[in-house]
Structures are given as structure tokens and as C-alpha cells.
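Figure 6 in text form: structure in, sequence out.
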């Protein structure tokens, strides 16, 4: 469930990109970029089993591709961090930069932030599974206790019946 691909563009001009796995992300991204209006926006497109999340601000587009199970809020946290880091590093230089001008320098940042997001997502999933297991163990424990109590009540009743029969002459 990681972020599969991330790209920073100015319109259709790719400034930096990173893919965590092989795929035709560049071609698909180009098709999506043609549909993005130049005004500031924050949206998610869905195509097949993939989600395309983007933030467009001052004609700079920060986009990532995830599978359809990835939380939208996490994708936008990632994109906001990328946007913050990109703006603080390049500022207005991004408005006139050539294609892939920032790729060598910024693609490791994209890769690092993708792995940070993956670790956070994995940690949260691990916590959810832990608490799910704890609830399951508590439930099973309560069922066992209830069964033992029912068994003990049955044994006690049988013993009382036996003793009462024994006392009769």
C-alpha cells in the first residue's frame, strides 16, 4: 500500500519525479496533467485500481499515485510535505526551470518522503492489527470463562442433586 510514484511539474513540464516500482507512470501522469486546470486545487482522480492525488499551487503540480486502498488523507499529508520542501528549496526558480532540472537533487527527497509515509502507514496498520488481536483475545477469554462457569454450574447442580439423593433413606 505504498506511494508508487511521485512527480513535481510546472504544467506539463516535469521538474522532478521518483517511482518506487516499475510501471508506465510517466505516460499516465502526462494524461492526467492535461486534465488539470492551472488554478489552485487539491483533488484525487481514480483510474482502475489507482488513485492520482495532486495539489496545484501557483502552476506547480505536486502529484502522487497510490493504489485504491491508500488513505486519501495520508496522500495529501505526503504532498503537503513535498510541497513545503520543494518551495523552501527552489522557491521561484521552479517557475522558469527546464524539464528535469530539479530531478537529480529532488528525487531523493521524493524517495525519502515516500519511505517515511510508508513507515508511518505501516506503523498505524500494525497498531490497528495489534488492537484487533487484543480485542479478539479478550473476547475468546470471556467466552472461555463463560463456558467454564456454565460447566462449573452444571457440575455443582449435579453434585447437589447427588447429595440430596444420598441423604434420602
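Output sequence:
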Amino acid at each position: 500500500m505504498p506511494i508508487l510514484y511521485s512527480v513535481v511539474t510546472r504544467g506539463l513540464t516535469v521538474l522532478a519525479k521518483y517511482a518506487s516500482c516499475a510501471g508506465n507512470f510517466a505516460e499516465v501522469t502526462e494524461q492526467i496533467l492535461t486534465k488539470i486546470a492551472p488554478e489552485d486545487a487539491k483533488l484525487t482522480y481514480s483510474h482502475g485500481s489507482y488513485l492520482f492525488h495532486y495539489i496545484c499551487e501557483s502552476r506547480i503540480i505536486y502529484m502522487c499515485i497510490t493504489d485504491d486502498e491508500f488513505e486519501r488523507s495520508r496522500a495529501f499529508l505526503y504532498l503537503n510535505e513535498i510541497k513545503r520542501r520543494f518551495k523552501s528549496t527552489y522557491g521561484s526558480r521552479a517557475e522558469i526551470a527546464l524539464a528535469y532540472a530539479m530531478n537529480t537533487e529532488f528525487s531523493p527527497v521524493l524517495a525519502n518522503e515516500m519511505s517515511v509515509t510508508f513507515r508511518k502507514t505501516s506503523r498505524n496498520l500494525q497498531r490497528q492489527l495489534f488492537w484487533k488481536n487484543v480485542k479478539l483475545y479478550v473476547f475468546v477469554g470471556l467466552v472461555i470463562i463463560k463456558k467454564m462457569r456454565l460447566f462449573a454450574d452444571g457440575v455443582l447442580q449435579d453434585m447437589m442433586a447427588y447429595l440430596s439423593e444420598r441423604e434420602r433413606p
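Caption detail: The radius of gyration is 29 Å.
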